[in-house]
Amino acid sequence: MEKNKTSAKKYGKAIIIGRPNTGKSTLINTIMSQKVSITSPLPQTTRRNIPVIYKDERGEIYFVDTPGLVANVKDLIGKRVNTEASKSIGKTDVIVMVVDISREKNEEENKVIGLVRRSKAKKILVYNKIDKAVGSKDHLAEYNYLEEEFDKVIGISAIKGKNVKGLIKLIFDLIPARKKRIDWGDDFNVEDSKPVIPMESKEYVGEIIREKAYLFLREEVPYSLTVNVDEIQEKKDIIVIKASIITTADRYKKMIIGRGGRKIKEIGYNARKELELMSQRKIFLDLTVIVDRHWPERIVER
Ligand SMILES: Nc1nc2c(ncn2[C@@H]2O[C@H](COP(=O)(O)OP(=O)(O)OP(=O)(O)O)[C@@H](O)[C@H]2O)c(=O)[nH]1
Ligand SMILES: [Mg+2]
After folding, report:
1. Ligand 1 and 163: CB distance under 6 A
2. In which element (H, E) is residue 16 found?
3. DSSP letter at 249?
């Protein structure tokens, strides 16, 4: 009995794509029941592909959360973000395309659909934010024409968790039954029932700080910044983290620091709180702001 069950398990890969801000990272966090990918109300929050493994009695799904595809690429970050999303599309079993039905469709969707068309993978169209857009307020009609290109269609609320279980079932249904577990590589320890955060902790801590910066800064500033964690020091009863927010100009630095240091304090306080909650440890966060006009040119491929 047990043996049969094991051989019927499914192992496959699903990538989550869509234009910026449709709720891809929120969805991945809900699926994993923990924060693995940062989210914010601003487009282009995710900057690189974030892989995670979902595991239950049915098998394993290797998910990749991708940066939202942008239509008019003007800057280096935008370019990089598009390349990241596109390169993830190869060799996947399932493509999960997330649209935000509370917003009008635009040319970014065309870019996404262009990519989807090129793939032979199974395809699921996800209508997200059904909690927000109901009845006359939604833009569902603008997306309906896409349905014929997809194997399955489902409406969900990533933030409320509505229908997310249903979506996971659809993914398992579309994953081919394989005889053997796939070796996902060294990044993952799937024997552990807890999902593994596949980032170096420095990177992950940096992402949490970046998320809080996005949250508390005015719109144009976030795109000019990146976060570098210089040091994580484990002491007996405290973890000391030294990090810098790197931005491209003095005026941004001023805005990040804020009057009397209020902004940076707010960012630091909230990042620290979240890190303490996650690690169940006391944390000292030493946050500085530096100007480096050239940081966007220096992002290296991972
Ligand atoms: N009302 C509502 N808001 C949602 C839902 N899912 C996500 N959001 C919000 O939409 C915004 C964008 O969410 P993200 O998960 O960061 O979107 P994303 O697609 O990962 O964006 P990029 O990484 O920029 O491509 C955030 O403010 C979320 O809280 C949902 O189901 N309902
Ligand atoms: Mg995202």
Report:
1. no
2. strand 10-17
3. -
Ligand 1, atom 6: closest residue by C-alpha: 23
Residue 221 DSSP SS3: coil
- Give the other-Cβ count within 10 Å of 199's Cβ: 19
126-182 pLDDT, tens per residue?
999 999 977 767 889 899 999 999 999 999 999 999 999 999 999 999 998 887 777
12 bridge partner residues: 61
Rounded-to-integer distance, Cα 172 and Cα 14, Å = 10
What residues contact residue 235 under an 8 Å CB cut-off, 6+ apart? none
215 burial (CB, 10 Å; 0-12 / 13-18 / 19+) is middle
CB-based contacts of 19, cutoff 8 Å, min separation 6 = 43, 68, 69, 70, 71, 99, 100, 106, 108, 109, 111, 112
Task: Decide whether any atom of ligand 1 lies within 6 Å of the 21 Cβ.
Answer: yes
All residues with CB under 5 Å from ion ligand 2: 24-25, 45-46
* Tokens (6 digits) for 115: 């990519």
* Å from CA of 50 to ligand 2 middle: 9
Distance of CA 155 to the CA centre of its chain: 19
